[in-house]
Design goal:
2 domains; single chain; alpha/beta; 6 strands; about 210 residues; six-stranded mixed β-sheet; Ribosomal Protein L4, Chain: A
Length: about 210
């Protein structure tokens, strides 16, 4: 697949050939779904916690006589059915992370890239850099290019001025190529790759 390369000013800057092994697969929704679930499960903190009846600071003395009181035969105010007592089957501190093989994760990334390529959602720019980190100037350039909802992937490092200007633009994410992931690709309409990012991706999946 051949794509034109543009600059941030909207001018043409040649073309690139995308590898079919990375961008030419037939996307599988099941693999993409597995990877997104894996990513989101690892983001959950799992710090929610309630107290069960053994952790409640209340008396354990029997409430009344066993017989003759006209009430149920309760033995402790820490019981789960009392107000202020312990909670039954509440959440505990735990990890929500699930396992996903490394090969499946790599395959899911290629399927996500292929999905964007199939939908025409990939744009290639020569470089993502600015002389001044001004958000207003960058928003004007994005307007010319039609970047309203986009993920921008640069090379090994992101230009500091570009990152500073882009972080104030809503629905625009900027990541180095090491941070590329399935969830961020799928949640944005456009995937913008620099030449450096393309070279790094091809080297990664050789």
């Amino acid at each position: 697949m051949e794509l034109k390369v543009t600059t941030l000013d909207g001018k043409e800057s040649g073309s690139v050939q995308l590898s079919d092994a990375i961008f030419g697969l037939n996307p599988r929704k099941d693999i993409l779904q597995r990877c997104v679930v894996w990513q989101l499960s690892r983001r959950q903190a799992g710090t929610h916690k309630v107290k069960n009846r053994s952790e409640i600071a209340r008396t354990g003395k029997k409430l009344g006589k066993q017989k003759g009181g006209g009430t149920a035969r309760h033995g402790s105010q820490r019981a789960n059915l009392f107000r202020g007592g312990g909670r039954s089957f509440g959440p505990l501190v735990r990890s929500h992370a699930i396992e996903l093989p490394k090969k499946v994760r790599a395959l899911a990334l290629r399927h996500a890239l292929s999905s964007k390529a199939k939908d025409g959602g990939i744009v290639v720019i020569d470089q993502a850099s600015l002389k001044d980190g001004k958000t207003k100037a960058l928003k004007e350039q994005f307007g010319k290019l039609g970047f309203v909802n986009a993920l921008i992937i640069d090379g090994a490092s992101v230009d500091e001025n570009f990152a500073r200007a882009a972080r104030n633009v809503p629905q625009i994410d900027v990541l180095p190529v090491q941070g590329i992931n399935v969830y961020d690709i799928m949640r944005r309409q456009k995937l913008v790759l620099t030449k450096a990012a393309l070279d790094a991706l091809e080297a990664r999946f050789k």
